[in-house]
């Protein structure tokens, strides 16, 4: 009986990689491509959903081509795939799962105005509520930046990068607690959405 095969897809700041192992943990193959960031002036760095999904598709195609040789089995298939990646970066999707804005790199400098304009009460509570320092790297700041530059958040939902990729590969639309804890939208004590921050954005709990 051939061993089960599992794959890990990692969405990193530098590269996107796929690692395939058998269920004993023996590495069979790895494929990697640079993360397809789009670079702009002043260190601005963002990501188009179509570029990310194209990169992933090419990697998975390469894995499929190599899998028979790597396993010695022409009928080899992957039984399960896990997705990991950056928690701060994500996409806003509408009710039809159409992406409405690019994803920002965690190191993108945009959002300082939104940090400066946070109400004092939210700023004072931020670290205690979220466990994060308030700054431009936090997802909620980038979301506020998009809102303040003309994007209506009505009817949109936030998906961290791995959540979006799982959805795009046919998985369920769910939020992961670990990833959500990097957004600034979650109350770390209750595990529930931070209602005051959602109100500041003008969205409801279904946003995440």
Characterization of the model:
The chain has helices at 49-71, 112-116, 120-130, 139-148, 161-168, 177-180, 195-201; strands spanning 5-11, 15-22, 27-34, 38-39, 45-47, 80-85, 90-93, 103-104, 157-160. It is an alpha+beta fold and 208 residues long. The strands form 3 sheets. The chain has a 4-stranded mixed beta sheet with strand order 3-2-1-6. The chain has a 3-stranded antiparallel beta sheet with strand order 4-5-8. Strands 7-9 form a two-stranded antiparallel sheet. The radius of gyration is 19 Å and the shape is elongated. The chain starts with a strand and ends in a 7-residue tail after the last helix.
Strands of the biggest beta sheet: in what spatial order? 3-2-1-6
Q: Tell me the span between the first and last alpha carbons.
A: 42 Å
Count of DSSP-assigned helices: 7
Strand percentage lies at 15-25%
Sequence stretches where pLDDT stays below 50 over 5 or more residues = none
Total strands:
9
Structural features:
4-stranded mixed sheet; 9 strands
Task: Summarize this entry quickly.
33% of the residues lie in helices and 21% in strands. It has 208 residues and is α+β, with helices and mostly antiparallel strands. Strands 3-2-1-6 form a four-stranded mixed beta sheet.
């Amino acid at each position: 009986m051939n061993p089960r095969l599992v794959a890990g897809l990692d969405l990193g700041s530098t590269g996107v990689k796929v690692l395939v192992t058998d269920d004993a943990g023996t590495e069979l193959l790895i494929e990697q491509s640079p993360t397809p960031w789009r670079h702009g002036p002043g260190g601005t760095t963002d990501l188009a959903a179509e570029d990310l999904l194209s990169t992933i598709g090419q990697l998975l195609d390469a894995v499929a081509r190599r899998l028979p040789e790597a396993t010695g089995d022409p009928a080899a298939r992957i039984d399960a795939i896990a997705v990991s990646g950056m928690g701060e970066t994500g996409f806003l999707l509408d009710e039809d799962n159409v992406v409405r804005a690019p994803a920002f790199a965690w190191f993108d400098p945009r959002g300082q105005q939104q940090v400066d304009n946070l109400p004092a009460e939210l700023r004072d509570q931020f670290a205690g509520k979220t466990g994060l320092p308030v700054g431009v790297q936090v997802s909620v700041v980038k979301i506020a930046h998009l809102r303040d530059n003309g994007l209506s958040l009505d009817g949109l939902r936030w998906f961290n990068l791995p959540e979006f990729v799982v959805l795009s590969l046919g998985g369920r639309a769910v939020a992961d607690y670990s990833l959500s804890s990097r957004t600034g939208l979650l109350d770390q004590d209750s595990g529930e959405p931070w209602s005051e921050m959602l109100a500041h954005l003008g969205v409801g709990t279904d946003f995440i």
